[in-house]
């Protein structure tokens, strides 16, 4: 029995919601088309704390390992931030313990509280089993939580990596959109996201494989998200993701470029290791 099939059975036994995840083959055929499988996940890790607000990175490592994903987008990632995560580098630790490469894109990068200590950072990250060819931390519109009188302004924290997956270049983006009830900042963030992703499409001669992973803080039918679905396919995982205990809304997403990536299956994993549930999806990349 393959490792992926065993992983799927573990997830289903744990109460995975949504469509059954069928372990992809090394390559899949679609007519004369050759497709390359890639399993991805997105997870807001709540700075290492579970639904109980107890910091427990071991618990999250176990959950992430059980997903058996090739690429994982993470949100609310502390790197030497403060006592809530024991001043630890969560991006580096998760990558090391899972045996994956990492690209961290800070939203905030603040001076340390004591001289000589590492900078205090908070943001998003991408973990990958595949080589990270390049990485960039893009600015998008944000309303800072660190400024007592914030105004919307460009700020970093929209992470992008280019991976090489069985010879294919793949652009993966990790994002965390504004949480406030007023959608105005999310409207601007969606426009920024579309612009950045469109620029990547224009920069190459052939269609680009793009995967957007993140916590959008809005329902799939929210008007501010509608422009995203003009160019991206929202991979429906079959269930809500937030809050992790008795979830009532889906705000965590895997979205892919329509012409170059398709989905085989997707599901929501039932876990209380964060205040969100992760979404995992089996994708097929067009050559």
UniProtKB/TrEMBL annotation:
It comes from the Bacteria. InterPro entries: Endo/exonu/phosph_ase_sf, Endo/exonuclease/phosphatase, GPI-anchor_lipid_remodeler. Residues 41-276 form the Endonuclease/exonuclease/phosphatase domain. One of its GO terms (molecular function) is endonuclease activity. Residues 1-27 form the signal peptide. Keywords: Endonuclease, Hydrolase, Nuclease, Signal. Pfam families: Exo_endo_phos. PANTHER family: CALCOFLUOR WHITE HYPERSENSITIVE PROTEIN PRECURSOR, ENDONUCLEASE_EXONUCLEASE_PHOSPHATASE DOMAIN-CONTAINING PROTEIN. This is Endonuclease/exonuclease/phosphatase family protein. It comes from Streptomyces brevispora.
């Amino acid at each position: 029995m393959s490792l992926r099939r065993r992983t799927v059975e573990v997830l289903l036994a744990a109460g995975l919601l949504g469509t059954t995840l069928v372990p992809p083959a090394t390559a899949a055929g679609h007519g004369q088309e050759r497709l390359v499988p890639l399993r991805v996940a997105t997870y807001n890790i709540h700075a290492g704390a579970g639904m109980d607000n107890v910091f427990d990175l071991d618990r999250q490592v176990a959950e992430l390992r059980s997903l058996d994903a090739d690429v994982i987008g993470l949100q609310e990632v502390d790197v030497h931030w403060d006592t809530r995560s024991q001043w630890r580098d969560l991006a580096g630790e998760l990558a090391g313990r899972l045996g994956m490469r990492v690209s961290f894109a800070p939203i905030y990068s603040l001076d340390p509280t004591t001289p000589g200590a590492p900078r205090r950072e908070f943001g998003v990250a991408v973990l990958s089993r595949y080589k990270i060819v390049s990485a960039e931390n893009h600015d998008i519109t944000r309303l800072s939580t660190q400024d007592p009188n914030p105004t919307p302004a460009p700020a970093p924290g929209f992470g992008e990596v280019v991976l090489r997956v069985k010879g294919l270049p793949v652009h993966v983006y990790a994002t965390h959109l504004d949480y406030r009830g007023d959608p105005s900042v999310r409207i601007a963030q969606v426009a920024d996201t579309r612009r950045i992703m469109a620029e990547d499409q224009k920069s190459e001669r052939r269609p680009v494989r793009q995967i957007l992973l993140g916590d959008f803080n809005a329902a799939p039918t929210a008007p501010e998200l509608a422009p995203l679905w003009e160019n991206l396919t929202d991979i429906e995982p079959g269930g809500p993701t937030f809050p992790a205990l008795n979830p009532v809304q889906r705000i965590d997403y895997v979205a892919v470029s329509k012409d170059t990536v398709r989905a085989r299956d997707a599901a929501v994993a039932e876990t209380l290791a964060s205040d969100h549930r992760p979404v995992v999806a089996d994708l097929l990349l067009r050559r």
